[in-house]
Write a structure and sequence with these properties.
Length: about 260
């Protein structure tokens, strides 16, 4: 058991399992809140008139709902399906999967330490939940910034926790793309473009970045980094170096960003 949660907050997105579908709405259980029961009224199932509710929800289905209201004294939780868009649903489901994985990793730590799950939460789990938004965030941080994590925590659990984290969790990263358009009408134009691209590569200064030809005069720049801010700075350094170099030699150059 180990993790016992109370009630969700208004406006929170929650993962639910549909248990019973009626014409007037659907009864669900909240997976992250010890299977507490919630209700989605038919008016909150979908935008517009819902003729057949089972066209939208069915028993056993996993859904993401938005919390509309909570009455903890009566145990009532009112939910909405239609208030959650596709992007929010995908993001929430991924977060839920990550947290389920993290809980399994805590179990592995407990097994290796030969202690109970409850003891593991007493030793470090509850503290990590207070310090981070989720257990998975704690595992990711342990991998991404090991030195700082070890400085922040101590105890008999830390070495095994780090071991399990490094075995099972990849360091978080983001990727951004852009298209450099480089042209030169000079007799040695291709050489000038090539030199500009080399300037861009050099400006990456060892970062995880690459430039590939999409089809002259378009060159794709891909940057990967732990955070968007860092990735944006690297993209800026690469593009500025290439663009400034080619323009200084009489060419034309620009950067067009692609979707993140």
């Amino acid at each position: 058991m180990a993790r016992v949660r109370g009630f969700p907050e208004n406006g929170e997105l929650v993962v639910c399992t549909v248990k019973n579908v009626k014409n007037f709405g659907a009864f669900v259980t909240l997976d992250e809140y010890d299977d507490k029961e919630g209700f989605v009224h038919v008016r909150d199932v979908a935008t517009g008139w819902v003729k057949y509710i089972r066209d939208y929800v069915r028993e056993g289905q996993k859904v993401v709902c938005k919390v509309l209201g909570v009455d903890s004294s009566k145990g009532h939780i009112d939910l909405s399906l239609k208030a959650v868009n596709d992007h929010q649903k995908r993001e929430k489901i991924q977060q839920w999967k990550n947290e389920k994985k993290a809980e399994k990793l805590v179990e592995i730590v407990a097994e290796r330490m030969e202690i109970s799950i409850d003891k593991a939460y007493d030793l470090f789990g509850n503290e990590l939940l207070e310090d981070y938004e989720s257990l998975y965030d704690a595992f990711e941080t342990a991998v991404a910034d090991t030195e700082a994590f070890v400085e922040d925590y101590d105890g008999e659990w830390i070495d095994i926790f780090m071991e399990v984290a490094q075995e099972n969790v990849a360091a978080p990263s983001v990727q951004i793309d852009g298209i450099l358009e480089l042209t030169s009408s000079a007799p040695n134009g291709m050489e000038l473009v090539r030199n500009a691209l080399l300037k861009g590569v050099a400006a990456a200064d060892g970062a995880d970045a690459e430039i590939t030809c999409v089809g002259c005069p378009r060159y794709r720049v891909v940057v990967r980094a732990p955070e968007y801010k860092e990735a944006e700075e690297i993209m800026k350094d690469i593009s500025n170096a290439a663009i400034n170099d080619l323009i200084s030699n009489g060419g034309t150059a620009s950067l067009k960003r692609e979707s993140k």
